[in-house]
Write a structure and sequence with these properties.
By secondary structure, the chain is mainly alpha-helical. Helix content is about 45%, strand content about 0%.
Length: about 80
């Protein structure tokens, strides 16, 4: 489903420093939609590629996952 996003409003949000997650939430788009928005705004001359490259992107953040699992050989915990 294509969304209609007002370029002037989005440009204002981007220039005010709204981060990627906030933009995605506000405009109800996923990361693919956000990248598409950025590409279209650069193609239209509203943003430069340098402005996009200079953003702190949520896509480039480091995420740490805890993949530890309980030892299944231990008896289950039973509260008293």
């Amino acid at each position: 489903m294509k969304r209609e996003i007002r370029a002037k409003e989005a440009l204002g949000d981007i220039r005010e420093g709204m981060d990627d997650l906030a933009l995605m939430e506000k405009y109800k788009i996923n990361d693919r939609g956000l990248r598409s928005l950025f590409r279209k705004m650069v193609a239209a001359g509203l943003l430069t590629q340098q402005e996009i490259d200079g953003r702190d992107s949520a896509f480039l953040s480091t995420v740490t996952l805890d993949l530890s699992f309980p030892d299944l050989t231990d008896p289950p915990f039973r509260p008293r």
